[in-house]
Amino acid sequence: MTDATYIHGTASTEQARLAALNRLTNGPFIEFLRIEPGMQVLEVGSGLGILAAEVAAAAPGVQVTGLERSPNQIAAATSHPCVTYVEGDAQQLPFPEAQFDLVYCRYLLEHVADPNRAVAEMHRVTRPGGRVAVMENDISLVRIDPPCPGFQAIWAVFAQYQWQLKGDAFIGRRLFRLLHSAGLTQIELSFQPELHWSGSPNFRLWIENLRGNLGSARAGLVEAGVCKAEQLARADDELRQLAERADASATFAWNRAMAVK
Ligand SMILES: C[S@@+](CC[C@H](N)C(=O)[O-])C[C@H]1O[C@@H](n2cnc3c(N)ncnc32)[C@H](O)[C@@H]1O
Question: Which listed residue, 1, 162, 203, 243, has the most CB atoms within 10 A of its CB?
Fold first, then answer.
């Protein structure tokens, strides 16, 4: 299998963006997971482990395993006495079947060359009656006002570039089909909303996240020839100015799915 390249890399600025995104999204996501005492939990694509550590702290006796492909991410990951990190590939999980009560991934499937196989692996390692949960991106749902045409143009080629890397920037819309083809049952879809406007607590943070998305992919986008450095600079400038306005807003919805084995 040819693997996908991780579009964002692991530079320190990208690590800071991911940490800020965790601060914004972890609360509602952990509520969605419905963690129970004593659960054996697997996070696939655990990144910096910020989420894994919060999941471990969500109820007594919870043990979390964080499966992560990048040794750089594991080296930088948050330590927690109830979290263990294992290096490996989501498409070939190094665990026996039926080992976990809850298996989840977040912001992962968009980066994986064979997401069907990754979800099939998540299903395999979940115990019968256990749950599989997913939250992913569909970048077509990003809305900003007033319009930033330079940003919108780059956002469209960003998706093309992710295709070239064998990822899928629209994978959020495919969650029901992915979980269904893995044989999961009782699949329920939901949204986790991002609703931000000038003066609201996380408006600037959300715009910074959008800027960071482009920033961490900048070199790759230019090298791949999908856009020019000047176009990226213009898009970034538009977002920077948007964050300063008194009348701007930005909305998005993360796609979530929960299912039972
Ligand atoms: C955007 S981060 C998300 C981290 C974490 N799940 C969170 O919600 O903060 C995606 C992570 O998936 C990892 N990753 C990408 N492809 C992978 C694969 N095939 N197997 C395991 N991890 C992978 C990347 O190295 C990166 O750390």
Answer: 162
